[in-house]
Amino acid sequence: MKTPRFETRKKRKRLKMRYLVILFVFLFATGFFVGKTHSTSELPSTPKPTEKGDVLIPKFEAPITIESVEKDPVVEEPITEEPIVEEKSEGKVVYLTFDDGPSELTGQFLDVLSELDVLATFFMQGSNLKKEHLQENVRRAVKEGHYVGGHSMTHNFKTLYSDRQFVPEMKETLALIHEITGTIPRLVRPPYGSTPGLKNEKIRHQLAEAGIKVWDWTIDSNDWKLRGNPSQIIENIKRGTTTDREIVLMHEKPQTLAALPEIIQFYREQGFEFAVYNDAHHFVLNFQNDVDL
Ligand SMILES: [Zn+2]
């Protein structure tokens, strides 16, 4: 009697052990899978540090918009790969452009443009871009839909053209604009125009290699030397308007600010649309007639 009882106890013990092992395996397996699904659904993947290295931006939180994609710092990448498609407009188009900013007047220019619902193209200068108190209006310009391109660091004829610092200076200016606004502009306006400065083929070749585009103008308002004489600026522009696509050279000057509402009114009356430069729809506009710029 003793032996069988002992035997069954042993059997029970073995069965118990088997159940325990099965239970253990089961628990281990489910625990593993639950943990796995948990980790993919709730735990965020490690955010990658931005290139500046100081701020961690968890990418999964930011909704992907065109703006956020554009503002990713990707400066080292080749400047352009997409083909540029020239946008042919059906009617008359005018590009208002303002050089030499940012200045103490940038905010007031933006106010007038915003009030009259016009977008413009600014060419800003590095020495002014470096002034911190002017940077908020550079950001505002971009935020409100205007284009901000480069206009060199020094604005010095000899340095830019004789000493051939044009390309390095423009690269520096464009990088500054990127730092301030997050945009990646490719367009610059040569101080004093591309003639005679960019007659030098070597500089033009450097520009083309860097993917930098150059815009001169079709109408010179001569506003910078017409201090206190806004009506003459308006007159110059009216007289200069002869084709269906005009690019008007102006500066951030008080007399230009005073003339601006009437200039806008003139173009509206003449049936012009106001356009703003767009890297993706570049067209050639330089006195050198260089199709690579
Ligand atoms: Zn200038």
Kindly report the average pLDDT value: 81
CATH fold field value of the largest domain: TIM Barrel
Radius of gyration: 32 Å
Query: CATH superfamily membership of the largest domain, which one?
Result: Glycoside hydrolase/deacetylase
Specify the helix fraction band: 40-55%
Per CATH, the architecture of the largest domain is: Alpha-Beta Barrel
Order of helix and strand elements from N to C terminus = HHEHEHHEHHEHEEHEHE
Say how many strands there are: 8
* List of distinct ligands in this structure: zinc ion
Structural class by SSE content: alpha/beta
N/C terminus separation: 106 Å
Please give the count of helices.
10
Question: What is the number of domains?
Answer: 2
Indicate the proportion of strand residues: 5-15%
Largest sheet: 6 strands, parallel
Describe the structure.
The chain has 293 residues and is an alpha/beta fold. The protein folds into two domains: 1-65, no CATH class; 92-281, Alpha-Beta Barrel (TIM Barrel), CATH 3.20.20.370. It has helices at residues 2-41, 66-71, 106-115, 126-129, 132-143, 157-162, 166-181, 201-210, 230-240, 254-269; strands at residues 92-101, 121-124, 147-150, 187-188, 213-214, 219-220, 245-251, 272-275. Helix 3 (106-115) links the parallel strand 1 (92-101) and strand 2. Helix 9 packs parallel to helix 10 (254-269). The N and C termini lie far apart (106 Å).
Please outline the helices and strands.
Layout: H1 2-41, H2 66-71, E1 92-101, H3 106-115, E2 121-124, H4 126-129, H5 132-143, E3 147-150, H6 157-162, H7 166-181, E4 187-188, H8 201-210, E5 213-214, E6 219-220, H9 230-240, E7 245-251, H10 254-269, E8 272-275
Parallel strand pairs: 1-2, 1-7, 1-8, 2-3, 4-5, 6-7
Helix pairs in contact: 9-10
Bound molecules: zinc ion.
Zinc ion binds at residues 99-100, 151, 155, 191.
